[in-house]
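Technical annex, item 7. During the second reporting period the consortium partners agreed on a shared format for inverse folding records so that results from different sites could be compared directly. Each record opens with the tokenized structure and is followed by the designed sequence. A conforming record, contributed by the partner at site C, is shown below for reference.
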């Protein structure tokens, strides 16, 4: 059985090596941050960080990430003590339906780790590949900018 290092802990999963990472995270580990959106790497709702880089877990196989650090939304901060970025999303009311939030936050986390004080244009470019059907893009950008100011 494959072993995945997720949010700082090793987990043995029943998933096959060629199974999508998203399925192992949701079904085997009950981590519900990453969402199934399109299954084609087009929407970004399944984004996780692999060694700090944003990756679409719906098209990443379990076997391809063995030995790498996988971070999910749950790994950024617990419900009772959200990370600075998660708190900024809450403060800016940056969710309407919330389905895209996982991908937006994970992509923004990667951006802020690499570039703690991005411009608004850099935030928009970093989030460009993530889709939000509700149209709260401006609130999302404000949340990322807020988190960058509070660093």
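Designed sequence (site C submission):
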């Amino acid at each position: 059985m494959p072993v995945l290092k997720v949010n700082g802990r090793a987990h043995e999963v029943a998933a096959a090596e060629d199974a999508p990472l998203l399925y192992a995270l949701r079904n085997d580990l009950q981590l519900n941050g990453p969402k199934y959106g399109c299954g084609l790497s087009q929407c970004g709702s399944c984004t996780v960080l692999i060694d700090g880089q944003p990756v679409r877990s719906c098209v990443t196989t379990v076997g391809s990430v063995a030995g790498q650090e996988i971070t999910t939304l749950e790994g950024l901060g617990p419900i009772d003590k959200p990370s600075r970025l998660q708190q900024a999303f809450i403060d800016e009311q940056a969710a309407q339906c919330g389905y895209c939030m996982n991908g937006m936050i994970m992509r923004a986390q990667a951006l802020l780790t690499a570039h703690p004080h991005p411009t608004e244009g850099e935030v928009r470019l970093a989030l460009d590949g993530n889709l939000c059907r509700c149209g709260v893009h401006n609130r999302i950008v404000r949340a990322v900018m807020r988190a960058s100011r509070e660093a």
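The helical segments are 21-28, 84-91, 101-114, 120-127, 137-149. The mean pLDDT is 96. All partners now use this format for quarterly exchanges.
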